Each structure stands twice: as structure tokens, then as C-alpha cells.
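so my prof wants the structure for this chain in the C-alpha cells format not the other one, which i didnt know existed until like an hour ago. anyway here's the sequence
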Amino acid sequence: MRLFSMTMIALWLSCTGVLAADKPQPVKAELLADVTAVQPGETFNVGVRLTMEEGWHVYWLNPGDSGLPTKVEWKVPAGFKVNALDYPAPVRFDQPGNVVGYGYHHSLMLVAKVTAPKDLQPGANIEIAASANWLVCKDICLPGKAAVSLVLTAGGTSSPINRELFTNWLEQIPVAAAEKAEVQAANINIGRIVTLKWREPASNLQVFTDPGDAYSIRIIKIDTTGQTSTIRYAAEQLDKSAGPVEMTVVVAYDDVAGRHRSVKLIEPLGVKPK
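here's what i got, hopefully its the right format
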């Protein structure tokens, strides 16, 4: 199903490239930082924010049954280090033809941490650039891309900026499940059961797995009673000759204030139960 859907998207895009190019892009891209100046050795945040027009959506790393992941590539001055992108938890949505998608409505910010070299010379201009690629869909799907950049000053007085925006998106990035719940897991006859005993109430659970060709997974059932949630699923390791593999499971939920939050846990596949 996944391979078929991706093939159909590729064919559709190749056949409608002229149409897509003629359509106004319903996504605005911009690059932001949470500081105005950078000190030697300092770690700060940068983020590519995508703002979609009403009704449009872009996709998570695992787009679901169809779609293409949203990706960002960075270009920074020599000596600077960029950590891997942190993706906030997506939401699940239904698309025409009973096709399930995982992604984002309205807006998305992909945040990465950048560390300056310790020998950074004061007064220099620091240009950080990003190249973003996405597929945005509503009644039709349009491929999109943007090259965005910003310039910061090395040394001098630094003031925080965009802190509320960064905090909002950073709080949507999955944290280790043990930070928010007591986690228990066991093998059962239909596959696997994971129990989360939440420290604070959680509701509207959705479960996502990171993309990969090493396994297929089927969510059987999600139940929440009080502050305890159980997730039952069946997974199949597709290439058993590769030995044991692991997958990241993201559990998104609404906290007691109705905010979108998430946790992640690592689940073993191809490992014999003890």
C-alpha cells in the first residue's frame, strides 16, 4: 500500500508539473532564530516556519498512506554545528479515498539547535541558510520549496527574540515517555501491548511510528481509562536476516489544558521475549 501510494504520487506530480508550477503556492516559509546575536560557543535555536493557507496541510517524516515528508537542509558558516531536526508530533487526518495522512495544518516550525565555535570572532556577520521542501495538499497537491536565510551578529549584546513562538513548538516535540508516564510493555498473542500510566491526565491519543522499510505495523486498539492508556499493536519485521531492529513510537495526546503534546518510546522488533 505504501509503495503503491508513493509511486502514484510520483506519477501524479510528473504529469501535473505544469499545473503545479502555475498555481500560487499556499505556503509561506521563513527562517527565524531565538537570539539577535551569537556568543562564542553558544547554542541557540533556529527554525523554519511554514504557514499554510486555510484547508491545506503538509506532512510529517512518516506521511502515512500517501504524501511526502517535509525536509530541511542547512548551510552554516565553517565551525558551526547544526543538530538534527526535531519534528513536533503530527496529527492524523483522513484524505479522499480513505487515505490516512500524518502531518500539520495551519503552521509548522522545524527547530534545530546550532552551536557556534568557541573561537568565533566578535563583529562578524553570521549567515544561516536553509532549503525547505514539502508537499502541500488540499483538493490537489503541490510540491513546494523555498530557500530562506537570516544574518546574526557575532558577539555584542544579545537579546532573546521569538521566545514564545519557539517555546510553543519545542513543547510539541516528543519527550521520553518515562518523563510523563510509567511505562510497561509485554508481548501478547496478537503482538505487543504498551501501558502508559500518566502522571497527569491525557486524552485523544494518536499513535505514530517513524518511517522505515524494516518493518510494517498495524495499530490494533488504543484505550484510555482514567490516567491509564493501553496501546495494542502487531508488527512484522520485513527483513529478518538483518537481525533485531528498533522503531520509535510517538504517542501524541492532549494534556489537561488541551495542548498538543507527545512522548516517544523505543520498541524492539525481532527480539525474543525474555
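also thought this was worth mentioning. The CA atoms of residues 114 and 228 lie 38 Å apart.
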